[in-house]
Amino acid sequence: MRDAQRPDLSATFTVLLAGGRGSRLHELTSRECKPALPFAGPRRIVDFTLANAARSGLTRMIVATQYRPETLAHHLESRWASRFAEGSLRLREGTAVTGTPQGYGGTAAAVAANLAELQSEGVRELVVLAADHIYEMDYADMVAAHRASGASATVAVDTVPCDRASEFGVVRTTEAGRIESFLEKPAVVPADPAVPGRAQVSMGIYVFDLDWLASVLRIIPGNTQDFGHDILPLAVALGEAHAYRVPGDNFYWRDVGTLDAYRRAQLEFQTGDAPCALPPRIAASEHEMKAATGELIQFAFRMQTGGIALQAPRLGGDRPGRWTMLDESVLLPGARVAPGVRLTRTIVAPGTSVPAGLVIGEDPDEDARWFRRTEEGTVLVTTPMLARRAADRGRLVAPFADSRMGRSA
Ligand SMILES: Nc1ncnc2c1ncn2[C@@H]1O[C@H](COP(=O)(O)OP(=O)(O)O[C@H]2O[C@H](CO)[C@@H](O)[C@H](O)[C@H]2O)[C@@H](O)[C@H]1O
């Protein structure tokens, strides 16, 4: 979008929804929420959305946090707060804002609980973003489309193959872009003649007229209001919902909510050109310096195809010259692999050290016994899993060792 055409965003505010747990990422989200997880070296998932917002000129933002917000809060305060004007990046944690142990009971409830603050600042439009997707987008373009359509609610829409559409809100639109039906995660996805073989789905990115949103939040009682289940169906019924179709046929947009998707998307950033702009990286701490080192190693991997072979450096007492093989695998910040390790389709959790000679990803039964293995074959390895395996092997070996000692005594 050319500068002269950019909409005035001085009365536009953003709410970034960052409270979801991301339970399908299992142990990775046991201590930090999904938006705080590392992605592409030292970055975190949330950085993609924040970088989009910053590039789009959205300068005032509430971040609605809830599940395990500590790492996320630290990251936002140390990395992002200085890029917003003083007091313009505001963390609003659910239990603190609502005064209830439950916190925000739904995505729209997170906006409802912060509504008074937004209304007191003369906000006209609200941009609502999810904090856990990987993509590049100019939200100013969407705000301009929202204004041009005259609708009270605008939903960013992409298309996906029909067999994946049940994970999303599925929309049908008129040619002019008005949304005529919205089904939140339907078990059966109706065929859409507008996009043969595919389905139009909500990306969970919205622009609302704030007064209109406030009025519908008043109609829907309780503190569990959800955009997909409550607000959008109502907006469609009222004829107030418009679709903003993302540009291009192959728009890069990834929900990295499962171990398979999280691993695959990071591989897309390791090979050749990044599929979308990478957020800037600033190594602000020792932890991030280590992560940056990991990233350098990953970039070296690009030189290889069909797998990566590293000649192990002299580490501790290990013999040099043993090859470490990484195939379609991701080392998260601070992870280390010792010489002689072979990893296939493996995610090594942050700070985890894989001991010398271990082979992971080649024997599904063995992987499932010690680690977390998905049906698709992604294996997650964490420090406690390796410790359990080591303890168990110790138990198996000990009696044998004792009896030998007994014989020789
Ligand atoms: N209580 C809470 N407080 C604060 N933040 C919270 C929250 N619960 C969830 N969030 C955050 O809100 C965003 C959306 O999370 P949801 O789990 O509700 O959406 P889901 O992805 O299932 O569907 C939605 O997003 C997909 C696109 O991914 C759409 O297709 C679908 O219609 C839409 O409902 C995430 O960033 C999450 O972290």
UniProtKB/TrEMBL annotation:
InterPro entries: ADP-Glc_PPase, ADP_Glu_pyroP_CS, GlmU/GlgC-like_hexapep, NTP_transferase_dom, Nucleotide-diphossugar_trans. It holds the Pfam family NTP_transferase. Residues 323-381 form the Glucose-1-phosphate adenylyltransferase/Bifunctional protein GlmU-like C-terminal hexapeptide domain. Residues 14-268 form the Nucleotidyl transferase domain. This is Glucose-1-phosphate adenylyltransferase. The keyword ATP-binding applies. GO terms for molecular function: nucleotidyltransferase activity. Belongs to the bacterial/plant glucose-1-phosphate adenylyltransferase family. It comes from the Bacteria. Keywords: ATP-binding, Carbohydrate metabolism, Glycogen biosynthesis, Glycogen metabolism, Nucleotide-binding, Nucleotidyltransferase, Transferase.
